[in-house]
Amino acid sequence: MTRADAVAALRNPLSFIAGRWTPQPRTVQRSAFSALVMSVVIVVTGGAVRLTGSGLGCPTWPKCTAHSLAPTGAMNFHSAIEFGNRMLTYVLCAAIGWAIIAARSEKPYRRSLTRLGWVQFWLVMSNAVLGGIVVLVGLNPYTVAAHFLLASALIAVATVMWQRTREGDGTPRPLVGKPVQQMVWFLVAASALLIAVGTVVTGSGPHAGDSSEVERMPLDWETVSKLHAVLAWIVVTLTFALWFVLKAVDAPAGPLHRTRELFLILLSQGVIGYVQYFTNLPEALVGLHMLGSGLVWIGVLRVLLALRERPEAVADLPGPAAEVSVGTRA
Predict the structure, then answer these.
(1) In angstroms, rounded to a whole number, what is the distance separating the alpha carbons of residues 147 and 213?
(2) What is the rounded CA–CA span in Å between residue 171 and residue 313?
(3) What residues contact residue 183 under an 8 Å CB cut-off, 6+ apart?
(4) Which of 51, 85, 199, 279 lies at 20 to 30 Å from 43 by C-alpha?
(5) Rounded to an integer, what distance in angstroms lies between the CA atom of residue 63 and that of residue 49?
(6) DSSP character for 106?
(7) What's the sign of the alpha-carbon dihedral 140, 145, 151, 154?
(8) What angle do CA 220, 221, 227 make, to 5 degrees?
(9) What does each C-alpha distance from 23 to 20, 31, 106, 263, 309 come to in angstroms?
(10) H-helix or E-strand containing 74?
(11) What share of the chain is helix, strand, coil (3-state, %, to 5)?
């Protein structure tokens, strides 16, 4: 490497890498998928922090203690769990960084794809700061809810990027009619509300996130849980109805397959939800339910994205008349 190359790499490392590496489309797809997987993993491990009562295992932020970045020998396993979850943020950033580099290096360059990667990065940075605030305010349930919702936003963007790596940049072409599209948007809204109410169940429920006395939302968690269940049934009913509508209008295989997958995920999530409710919320089942929440959200978004196709963008080429005209002038 010459000195000029080193200077160029320091000034714009992404451009420097893109000029010397062209990843295969499969590599770009895998990088986006790895970012999506890690966005779900960080939600599940964050749930493990709460379910093990380790939310204040590191009582301050950004350090673990007032005098140490990492847990000290005098601290317990709660500190290790909380600190381990913090360290996974770096793994998530690495996965997103790989997705950004792969998208930036793909030929031809797709600016929209790279932007989706950067949106993920800034969502992670914002949620890291919010996570620190959660610790500093003693696991206030409203900040915990916001922390989870921001993580759900990250999953949404990661899902869109993964989908975009497997399609072109041409103008989207709808595969179903307007009424079906509106029905799916209603499904998306109902699912978002379901997730939001789920954070209220968490904020008012028994798993506060730490063994000490932690503030809870002043609501009856069983009543909120029943509302959550009603919303879940609405989402299940909409998904089931959507499948029949898609069959009736002879929709392409893509939307049908995505809807069937979502329905199966919802059934599994419903079984886990009812079992955990009637068994007094065992930690293992609550953790599985949090994983299911992320999978349901991904499934809903995949149904939405399956309603259209985006072919490869085609450059405008001169037609026969234009070519004759150019030849005449010459």
Answers:
(1) 20
(2) 8
(3) 238, 241, 242, 245
(4) 279
(5) 17
(6) S
(7) negative
(8) 100
(9) 10, 10, 6, 35, 23
(10) none
(11) 70, 0, 25
Whether 81 contacts 52, CB under 8 Å:
yes
- Nearest CA to 304 out of 198, 190, 205, 185 is that of 185
Tokens of 86: 């913090």
**Bridge partners of 173?**
309
Q: pLDDT tens digits, residue range 168-204? A: 888 899 999 999 999 999 999 999 999 999 889 888 8
The tens digit of pLDDT for each residue in 2-37 reads 777 676 667 778 887 888 889 999 999 999 999 999
Task: Decide if 49 contacts 82 (C-beta within 8 A).
Answer: yes
Distances, alpha carbon 307 to alpha carbons 73, 166, 175, 297, in Å: 54, 15, 5, 16
- Are 155 and 118 spatial neighbours (Cβ–Cβ below 8 Å)? no
How are beta strands 308-309 and 173-174 bridged, if at all? antiparallel
Please name the residue that has the structure tokens 């800034």.
122
